[in-house]
Batch of 4 targets.
Target 1
Amino acid sequence: MSKKKLISFLIAAVVVAVLAYLLLFGKLFPYSPIALGFDKHELQHVVVYVEKGAMFNRFQEIDSCIPMVENFHTLKFRKKPRIFLFGDRKTYADRSLSKARFCAFYNGDIVVSPWAQKEASEGLISMEIYLRHELSHSLIYQQAGILNAFRYPDWLLEGIAVYSANQMGTSWYPSKEQTYSYIRNGDFMPPRFYKTQKEDQVNIVARPRTPFIYCEFSCIVDYLVNKYGKDRFLAYMKELLNGGNHDDVFKTNFGIRFDESIEEFRQSVMQQS
């Protein structure tokens, strides 16, 4: 073998080794077909992986979430979503791309942190509500495919997830009335700024900041559903699964420019007391 071919072979071998490590033990773990260190539980609607040594027995509660999520979105999962329940903080830090309690990946798989399970057992959060939130992401990601999922509007993903899970007014999430009050007092995250460099420039007094932002987006979804009907809203949501231009899809479905509609929403909030 020539020196050039040997170097190419070694580089390829290193790349394969690194990729294998990331899939099995690193940040690409949710994309791996093999879940080392986890016990598999295949249920009617979902596949649950529990880290060895972790105590968990609420499988039917998880399984029952799937039909609720599908019914709201009027979509079906293309395949059973995989949910990974971690029992060790270090393992979670090593194998999750997120530090959040729950995280849905673009392939539709979901990871659940050890502290989320502890908070659920202590009654601080609802496992069902949080899972329905993440399963909303998972369903949209599966239907869209990884490329279109990556392009799906982030504000809309969160708004749909909170709205469909009835998450407002639970745990650290403000109620609709509280969210409206914050908006009237000047707090508002323009949807176009979310997940951009401009996001940090927006002053939000409400705390915790992220739950307020999610609830604001949920209120926008609620506004669209109430004004135009759920069927029209779902048509808009589904058309975006194909990767269409958001503003064009919005105008086609609602007959108004997106920015104009957001301004109408803000004005409607300001007029309520």
Target 2
Amino acid sequence: MIKDVIKVAEEKMQKTISVLHSDLSTMKAGRANPTMLDRIQVDYYGSPCPLNQVANVSAPEPRMLVITPWEKSLLKEIEKAILKSDLGINPSNDGAIIRLLVPELTEETRKNIVKNVKKAGEDAKVALRSIRRDANEKIKALKKDGHISEDEVKKAEDNVQKVTDKFVKEIDTIIAAKEKEVMSV
């Protein structure tokens, strides 16, 4: 029973790390990365659709993204969606493809991105602590129901804390790497 509680907590913590990775991948770091456009929704015949489902996005150069829509009629809609987004990049439409030139990041922009990176890291740590609290409550409920002893509760809580510490350390490593990537000119 205790192992199940710890296993579930560990799986949830791993999902938190995955969410953090996907959040960080959409933050621009001065280099063109197709995942920067993952959150962009294009109006596809009246319904919103992710950009990567209506077009091919590639990065032929370090600071350029090329969007090749599968239907030429979507060029205008894709262009509109990019302009509405918070990317701050102006699309260049040549009638067949859309080019996005990712500008060099200013010092101020870099610092804002680092602030957002740190916030994402903190949010992930809060999620981990919440998962830890839930696991500890389940362990205490097992004791209350008479399934485990006080010593087993202490040992299980220590194991949950070790798992939490491991994931917090992983978050710190991920955040430090992303900060370094953003701040490198």
Target 3
Amino acid sequence: MGHTTRSHEHPACAPLSAAQAAALLDNARALQRAAGNGDRPLPLRGKNLGLWCDDDRERSAALFRRAASELGAHVAHIRPNLGEASSLHELHDTARMLGRLYDAVECQGLPAALVERLAAEAEVPVFDGIALPQHPTALLAGQLDGDSEADDRRCWLLQAALVAAVG
């Protein structure tokens, strides 16, 4: 629970500066090398992550679950129960509950304004679609070395972002 990380403040959740992109790529490359050597570090062992989306069978939800699970985290699916019309009280209570149960939360398919409000209230990192193909981190996948599958490269970038935020 430690500190409040708003989604627009964390490098994995917003447009990346050149330095942030370089650091994320360096960490993803380290994870890629470790996987190639058969060494799978578990820096998120014991961490609980929430995946807040309507359908956890979607490709981006599965990618998030894979990235987190391969690092040792447990991922729980949360069905959205808030909307943009939700009261501030409901939002505050939900954000507090998320902060108590999870070390980070990935929101997929929720209105950006709602995710921003949750991120402002929660005391854990709140990601706004970090596993979605249009997220800024997805563009970096092509810069990873080797002939790995696109999903593998995307997974290592997600893992690097998760370790930076949670690990």
Target 4
Amino acid sequence: MVDRANKPELHVDTVADWEAWLDSDPDPSGIRLRLRKAATSRPGITYAEALDVALCFGWIDGQKQSLDADYFLQTFTPRRPRSMWSKVNIGHVTRLIEEGRMRPQGQLEIDRAKADGRWDRAYRQRDGDLPEELQEALNADPKIAEAFASQSAQNRFAMAFRVANLKRPASRASRVAEYVEMLKRGESLH
């Protein structure tokens, strides 16, 4: 696997250029796409435009990296077989399908996610919804709830995400118990 720093940079000036590149049998290790910042008048495409096109082709965004005053780099790679979907991206692809923009590669990823349950287990970003098992554990012990609340947003999200994406109830209960013990010890994931 090619690490992010070694992925090639791609500079495109139009959405059509980005679509053409994705249509040209691109390197499956992905790229770092140069995107223009909102405040610049320089040529290029925006993050929102790039993400829409990527989703249409079955690709997904990754880490962002600063470049200069006018541009940043955004990693894009093909969606991995078991990668989770966010509610935000489900909303995007629903809109893209309605607009008639979805490509066969993107539809294939949607169909796979629906078939294996990832579509229904899509996670919410930043909205505070906790899996039922985790919420019950927090409700049962105010000290644990306080320890959880004192965690960084990154840690709270990671715990909720990891619990929510376990399929079996026994696995979810076990993970919650593990996190409760971790919180009792004053530890965090990151």
